[in-house]
Specification:
There is one protein chain. This protein is an alpha/beta fold. It has two domains: 197 residues, Glycogen Phosphorylase B (Rossmann fold, 3-Layer(aba) Sandwich), CATH 3.40.50; 170 residues, Glycogen Phosphorylase B (Rossmann fold, 3-Layer(aba) Sandwich), CATH 3.40.50.2000. 43% of the residues lie in helices and 18% in strands. The chain has 16 helices and 13 strands. The chain has a seven-stranded parallel β-sheet with strand order 3-2-1-4-5-6-7, sandwiched between helices. Strands 10-9-8-11-12-13 form a six-stranded parallel β-sheet, sandwiched between helices. Helix 11 packs across helix 14. The chain is globular, with a radius of gyration of 21 Å. The two termini are 25 Å apart.
Length: 380
């Protein structure tokens, strides 16, 4: 089957990590898969032989957005894919429109955020509701029980197109030396070091991690990622005298994320909103004890099927994050218990299982109406 995945921007972030795994898994199953980005934001996908870009840089204004949307429609028409899988708000909307114009047989959308009621996100939610209700796309994937529950007030026609496929999360294939990895990323060799990763945006709340350093004068924190909040984080660290203990290592490509995680003694995740929390689960699977915001969805995905938690859950403010990290330092047996539970999460979030779920959904168009192989897979 010829498949195109549509992403909004090319950067090292969670949604892009998922489409990487789906593409790799489906290619291993004999499908032809390419990922097209509406625009290039960083250079992380420049050497990916399976990636294409509509625009070489982020669009500016309405005219730039129109160029990206029209270019995407032309790309999909030229590739003549059998199926189109879309990600993120704009990828879902413009990818679906372009796929419809191109005559794709199957369109699968992915929900990367809970429904919103205000601002541009509220408008995008209403567009998504209409598209899903009236069948603009054929299937709609959610990645957790929590995310699925957020759409319970949507029309039944919308909900009938929903399928739950939990994210796959890779496990490291090598054991990395901590001191070697600290040297590779320019991190202090002897310090107790908490690491974190993710796009630097207000919703990811890395400002709270910088604030935690104020309460914990003997630790360091390293963050992998870039984004619009970076200058504010640096300014806060300078103003509060912790700049020498905050290490921003920039964007780390997916191929090196486990090297970065291996440099840490713990992982801190202060994000304010998630539908899964891929970065935190990835860190847990790598063997790091995790301190995470006590969001319901993070409690779900960072808890094993037998009820054991792989994270210490706290409030997302600076003081609470600091208290959580301090507890890991004071109680090494707790840190070891969380780390052990986290390693076992790889059994719940197998990338192969996720890719099998997408393949089942792709093939379901040829099955009798009402037969949903993804639902069967989730209950297996």
């Amino acid at each position: 089957m010829k498949i195109v995945q549509v992403q909004t921007q090319a950067e090292a972030a969670g949604a892009q990590r998922i489409s990487d795994m789906i593409g790799e898994g489906l290619r291993a199953r004999g499908h032809e898969v390419r990922t097209v980005f509406m625009y290039r934001k960083t250079d992380v996908y420049d050497r990916d032989s399976h990636a294409d870009f509509i625009l070489a840089e982020p669009p500016r204004g309405l005219l730039g957005q129109m160029r990206a949307a029209i270019g995407l429609a032309g790309y999909l028409r030229e590739t003549r894919a059998d199926a189109v899988i879309t990600f993120q708000h704009y990828g879902n909307i413009f990818g679906t429109i372009g796929a419809r114009l191109a005559g794709a047989n199957l369109i699968i959308a992915n929900q990367s955020g809970a429904p919103q009621t205000r601002g541009i996100r509220g408008i995008l939610t209403q567009i998504d509701k209409l598209m899903g209700t009236f069948g603009a796309y054929h299937a709609n994937v959610v990645n957790s029980k929590w995310t699925e529950a957020q759409f319970h007030t949507f029309p039944k026609a919308y909900q009938r197109r929903m399928s739950r496929i939990d994210h796959g999360v890779p496990a490291p294939t090598f054991t990395f030396d901590k001191q070697a990895m600290r040297a590779a990323f320019g991190l202090p060799p002897g310090a107790w070091l908490a690491v974190s990763s993710g796009r630097m945006a207000p919703s990811k709340n890395q400002l709270a991690l910088a604030g935690a350093l104020v309460h914990l004068p003997d630790i360091h924190i390293a963050i992998a990622g870039t984004g619009p909040e970076q200058d504010a984080i640096l300014a806060f660290a300078r103003d509060n005298g912790v700049i020498d203990r905050l290490h921003l290592v920039g964007e780390v490509p997916p191929s090196r994320i486990f090297e970065f995680l291996a440099a840490g003694d713990a992982y801190a995740f202060s994000s304010l909103t998630e539908t899964f929390g891929l970065a935190a689960v990835e860190a847990a699977i790598s063997g790091l004890p995790v301190v995470a915001n006590k969001l319901d969805v993070l409690r779900e995905v960072l808890t094993m099927d037998d009820g054991r938690a792989a994270a210490l859950f706290v409030d997302a403010d600076a003081k609470s994050m600091a208290e959580g990290l301090a507890e890991l330092i004071a109680r090494p047996e707790l840190a070891a218990r969380l780390a052990a539970a986290g390693r076992h999460l790889k059994e719940q979030y197998s990338p192969a299982r996720m890719c099998a779920g997408y393949e089942a959904l792709l093939l379901s168009r040829s099955l009798p109406h009402g037969c949903n192989p993804v639902d069967n897979l989730q209950s297996a």
